[in-house]
Write a structure and sequence with these properties.
Blueprint: E1 5-10, H1 15-26, H2 30-33, E2 34-40, H3 46-53, E3 57-60, H4 66-73, E4 78-81, H5 92-106, E5 110-114, H6 119-122, H7 130-143, E6 148-154, E7 156-157, E8 168-169, E9 175-179, E10 186-190, H8 192-205, E11 214-217, E12 220-223, H9 224-235, E13 239-243, H10 255-271, H11 278-285, H12 296-302
Parallel strand pairs: 1-2, 1-4, 2-3, 4-5, 5-6, 6-11, 7-10, 9-13
Antiparallel strand pairs: 8-9, 10-12
Helix pairs in contact: 1-8, 4-5, 5-7, 9-12
């Protein structure tokens, strides 16, 4: 066996980056192929220290400070990177561009970026979903650079049902699951904590096979009625779906975040996840994961809804 490669992970203490690290450390083949470097803003944070205790190299690197980030990327062979919905006044594209440029300058050989569909382009300008469109724009920029790259495109995180989209109790003892989507709109679902690493690991195991490719991550496409039914079956509670009035929905969130999510739901209603390629995208998900992916029922059985 050749010398170990160095896998860098940006977002190492988050859901996707953490999933990638967990999968690699626990995979008999990939744990031999890669050493892991976690790149985080605060190496002294409990989550970062926990990674260090597992043998992961933890270094300081901040996407807001390109010079520091570039130094953190030196020696990295393969980089997994992602951006978050809102970082100060800069767009995700600004941040993603800086990450990609730093990777090229540092000599990273292969970049895996967590992307999403271009809602603005797919909808011919009808919808702008910033956290979709900025990731898609970053993907396009990365494709223009002199670096091998591939892309991981996850569906809606099942973890949202534990936080933003938790069913709410009613006066009659039942619960209501709400979004602003139509009840029959199907959406792709992924247990991102378990399975982001599952899909990215497929790329890590055979990187040349995936150059230029997008790996879609979803265990199933379900509509909100089906999701509510599965929640009822697992919890033993009566949970029904109700389409919410956009005027009052998620109004506890900052306006930019709320408007982003409302636009996403409207885009799903009219165009699906990936426009005309939605069904093809879902069919391709069965080709990529390294191991079994968790269904919604399996996720709900492992993660109790806070009812």
């Amino acid at each position: 066996m050749g010398e170990q490669q160095l896998l860098g992970v940006i977002g190492a203490t988050g859901k996707q980056g953490g999933s990638v690290i967990n999968f690699v450390l626990n995979d008999s083949e990939l744990s031999k192929k890669f050493k892991v470097r976690a790149i985080t803003r605060d190496p002294k944070a409990p989550a970062a220290r926990s990674l260090a205790d597992r043998g992961v190299e933890v270094v300081k690197g901040d996407v807001e400070e390109p010079d520091i980030l570039q130094k953190a990327l030196e020696g990295v062979d393969v980089l997994f990177a992602m951006t978050t919905m809102a970082i100060a006044a800069r767009t995700e594209f600004d941040v993603g561009k800086d990450v990609a440029d730093a990777a090229v300058e540092a000599g990273v050989k292969y970049l895996i970026f967590s992307t999403l569909p271009n809602a603005h382009k797919i909808s011919s300008g009808k919808y702008s979903v910033p956290h979709f469109d900025n990731k898609a724009k970053t993907e396009g920029y990365i494709r223009s650079l002199p670096i091998k790259s591939s892309f991981f495109c996850p569906g809606l995180f099942m973890q949202n049902f534990l936080t933003l989209l938790t069913p709410q109790p009613q006066n009659d003892g039942t619960y209501v699951l709400e979004t602003t989507m139509q009840q029959d709109t199907k959406i792709p679902l992924i247990d991102v904590v378990k399975d982001a690493g599952n899909y990215v690991a497929a790329i890590l195991a055979n990187p040349d096979q995936y150059v230029g490719e997008v790996v879609f991550g979803a265990s199933e496409y379900l509509n909100m009625e089906e999701i509510a039914q599965q929640m009822s079956q697992v919890t033993g509670k009566t949970i029904k779906y109700r389409k919410a009035d956009p005027l009052g929905f998620l109004n506890f969130l900052p306006d930019d975040t709320r408007n982003d999510l409302l636009a996403m739901f409207a885009y799903y209603d009219d165009f699906g996840f990936y426009g005309d390629l939605t069904q093809q995208a879902f069919t391709e998900t069965t080709k990529s994961p390294r191991n079994h992916v968790a269904s919604l029922k399996e996720f709900l059985n492992s993660n109790l809804l806070p009812l």
